[in-house]
Amino acid sequence: MTYDLLIGQRGYSSWSLRGWLPFDAFDIPCRVHRTELYGPDFAAEVTAFAGGRTVPAAKAPDGSRLTDSLAIAWHLADQFPDRGLLPPAGPDRAMAQNLISEMHTGFGALRQACPMNLLTGWAGFQPSDSVHADLQRIDSLWEAALARSGGPFLFGAYTLADVFYAPVAARIGGYALPVGSVARAYVEAHLAHPPMRRWRAMAIAENRVLDVYDQPLERMPYPAPTPLPAKAVDEGPSINGTCPYSGKPATHFLELDGRIWGFCNAFCRDKTVADPEAWPKFMAMVAGASG
Questions:
Q1: pTM across the whole model
Q2: Out of 3.40.30.10, 3.30.70.1230, 1.10.510.10, 1.20.1250.20, which CATH number does the structure's domain 3-79 have?
Q3: pLDDT in tens, 93-130
Q4: 257-265: which pairs have CB atoms within 8 A and are 24 or more residues apart?
Q5: Would the keyword Protein biosynthesis be found if you checked this record's keyword annotation (predicted)?
Q6: What CATH code would you report for 91-197?
Q7: How far apart are the first and last CA of the chain?
Q8: Using the 8-state DSSP alphabet, how is residue 6 labeled?
Q9: Nearest to 11 by CA among 212, 192, 273
């Protein structure tokens, strides 16, 4: 049961992030297809894929077409009721559904002023009154949920509610926005969450820079966990003969701790260079060779 998912550039497309996270976080197979935000073929490619006008869009194995991140979320929760996409029925589920819906329709001031950019942080941003109001509302929503659950995520375990607030956490971290200590810890939990680390590693490997997202601010390092010091190298031989992800012959290489590892293409290598610990198959291979 494999889905097809269409996304934009990972570094910037917050809605694409919301569409992809449920598949990765809840182990639902999907094939990822990419289109270019602001590219000349964007509208045609999106329409041809699933009949919609925006990303993300998904095609289900039964032929259903889903042209919105909220539709994707509700569909997956219905199709995989035992994966924990939503809290159990009752007050927590109602609270989660409300949080998701408010995120989907609200916080326009924050979205407009602070577009998601996972490739850099921005120093010196001064929130307007309307952005402050959005942040205060977000802070209160998060605090109420986390007080009930005890964290680290809104309902203890990771759910679709966290999926929908992942781009908000990315914005708060990337612009160093003012929130309370509880919200700050929640942001840090997002930025350290393995699916989020994988998405950002792939964004770095894509190397698709969109100047339209630049800000008149000083750049600062994005506040993600510090990756292991891997680097791309031109030649092997590698310890492994096949790519840890595809099983295909190793043709591209990286060095980590003085040892060479191989991958089947530049993207597999570069996403691993960006954050080796985000990739369980790679780390398992390293651990196996060390043991």
A1: 0.97
A2: 3.40.30.10
A3: 999 999 999 999 999 999 999 999 999 999 999 999 99
A4: 259/289, 260/233, 260/236, 261/285, 261/286, 262/236, 262/237, 262/238
A5: no
A6: 1.20.1050.10
A7: 35
A8: E
A9: 212
